[in-house]
């Protein structure tokens, strides 16, 4: 009798350990850092130590004086945000804020949502959908974490005013309808979000934004997916450095995964489930290192991963290259790439080991918003 009970327990434990989203061995370096911790719910801020790439570790978001703020009210008042709403937590609280959500909720933004410096939005454990006007805007701010949100059906917004940091009303210009837009933002980590079906694009990094890591997100159903660099004339974006890792692009993405102007992008270990026009490209002599990605070309149409705009001289001075990428379904990566490689030159806290491209489908399997069970690992 006792033996059979033990046996049943043993089987149960084996099933728990083998449950599909709990295998540490197949997690990427960011996930491995926190998802194996069964106490992650009580130790949420540990997440900030897990980022890699150009954002570096997000340790300015944690430590002494962090205010824990829980969103309890899905409503939105852009000029007079009520306590308990996401907008109140993201704009009205001074210093370091770690925002979580009390329950599943759908938030329809009435206007774009400004996120102030030293703010972490942490949607783990619940299902939070953000839609409406805007949507998220990091404007002249630093040290921002956006984790675990579904953001979709974001619509354009004509010039308007919203409540901003330090309870000051801020006039905003036209917003095109992107899920997340960074404008002159620094040290930002965007991880495990699911982004789709927005009016303009899904993620724009513009106007001198820098030190950004975009990881573990799922981008789908979109024409223009990701823009890095404001416009051809915006020379300050020459200093821009962005890391794009462990993301899943597709299905139904057309172009800009990403489109880069001027700056530097390290695009590694991403899973590309087709494209229409192209996957990675740009203009104004950007530097792009495409490393150990898994490119599956669309069945019909354009098989070429890259797209480069500019005259011949321009194109010749690009630093655009592919290392260790895998090409399926006839995908190709044009090797007429000008003067050759540019390494990311990460410092110690940004550095990470790029995995073999053959493991990319495994490493990106849980991209987008994670399903975390209440009692187990995430
Ligand atoms: C959010 O909206 C979806 C439909 O878009 C609905 O299925 C879901 O129940 C809603 N969730 C909440 C918490 O209201």
TrEMBL record:
<keyword id="KW-0732">Signal</keyword>
<dbReference type="InterPro" id="IPR018082">
    <property type="entry name" value="AmbAllergen"/>
</dbReference>
<keyword id="KW-0479">Metal-binding</keyword>
<comment type="pathway">
    <text>Glycan metabolism; pectin degradation; 2-dehydro-3-deoxy-D-gluconate from pectin: step 2/5.</text>
</comment>
<keyword id="KW-0106">Calcium</keyword>
<dbReference type="InterPro" id="IPR011050">
    <property type="entry name" value="Pectin_lyase_fold/virulence"/>
</dbReference>
<feature type="signal peptide">
    <location>
        <begin position="1"/>
        <end position="25"/>
    </location>
</feature>
<keyword id="KW-0456">Lyase</keyword>
<feature type="domain" description="Pectate lyase">
    <location>
        <begin position="104"/>
        <end position="301"/>
    </location>
</feature>
<dbReference type="InterPro" id="IPR002022">
    <property type="entry name" value="Pec_lyase"/>
</dbReference>
<dbReference type="InterPro" id="IPR012334">
    <property type="entry name" value="Pectin_lyas_fold"/>
</dbReference>
<dbReference type="GO" id="GO:0045490">
    <property type="term" value="P:pectin catabolic process"/>
</dbReference>
<comment type="similarity">
    <text>Belongs to the polysaccharide lyase 1 family.</text>
</comment>
<dbReference type="Pfam" id="PF00544">
    <property type="entry name" value="Pectate_lyase_4"/>
</dbReference>
<dbReference type="GO" id="GO:0030570">
    <property type="term" value="F:pectate lyase activity"/>
</dbReference>
<protein>
    <recommendedName>
        <fullName>Pectate lyase</fullName>
        <ecNumber>4.2.2.2</ecNumber>
    </recommendedName>
</protein>
<dbReference type="GO" id="GO:0046872">
    <property type="term" value="F:metal ion binding"/>
</dbReference>
<dbReference type="InterPro" id="IPR045032">
    <property type="entry name" value="PEL"/>
</dbReference>
């Amino acid at each position: 009798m006792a033996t059979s009970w033990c046996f049943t327990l043993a089987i149960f434990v084996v099933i728990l350990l083998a449950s599909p989203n709990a295998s540490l061995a197949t997690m990427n370096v960011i996930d491995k850092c926190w998802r194996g911790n069964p106490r992650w719910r009580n130790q949420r801020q540990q997440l900030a130590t897990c980022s890699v790439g150009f954002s570096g570790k997000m340790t300015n978001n944690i430590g002494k004086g962090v205010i824990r703020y829980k969103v309890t009210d899905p409503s939105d008042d852009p000029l007079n945000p009520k306590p308990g709403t996401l907008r109140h937590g993201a704009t009205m609280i001074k210093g370091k804020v770690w925002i979580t959500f009390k329950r599943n909720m759908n938030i329809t933004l009435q206007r774009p949502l400004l996120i102030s410096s030293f703010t972490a939005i942490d949607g783990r454990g619940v299902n939070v959908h953000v839609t409406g006007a805007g949507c998220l805007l990091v404007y002249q701010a630093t040290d921002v974490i956006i984790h675990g949100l579904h953001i979709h059906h974001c619509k354009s917004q004509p010039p308007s005013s919203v409540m901003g940091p330090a309870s000051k009303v801020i006039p905003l210009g036209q917003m095109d309808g992107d899920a997340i837009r960074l404008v002159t933002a620094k040290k930002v980590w965007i991880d495990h979000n699911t982004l789709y079906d927005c009016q303009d694009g899904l993620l724009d990094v513009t106007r001198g934004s820098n030190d950004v890591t975009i990881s573990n997100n799922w981008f789908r159903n979109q024409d223009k997916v990701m823009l890095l660099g404001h416009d051809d004339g915006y020379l300050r974006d020459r200093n821009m450095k962005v890391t794009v890792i462990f993301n899943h692009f597709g299905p139904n993405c057309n172009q800009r995964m990403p489109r880069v102007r001027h700056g530097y992008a390290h695009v590694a270990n991403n899973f590309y489930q087709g494209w229409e026009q192209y996957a990675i490209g740009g203009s104004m002599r950007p530097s792009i290192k495409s490393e150990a990605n898994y490119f599956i070309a669309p069945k019909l149409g354009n098989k070429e991963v890259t797209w480069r705009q500019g005259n011949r001289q321009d194109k010749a001075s690009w630093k655009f290259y592919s290392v260790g990428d895998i090409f399926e379904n006839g995908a190709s990566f044009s090797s007429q790439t000008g003067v050759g490689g540019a390494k990311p030159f990460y410092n110690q806290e940004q550095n990470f080991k790029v995995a073999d491209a053959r493991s990319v489908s495994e490493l990106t399997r849980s991209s987008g918003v994670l399903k975390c069970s209440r009692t187990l690992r995430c």
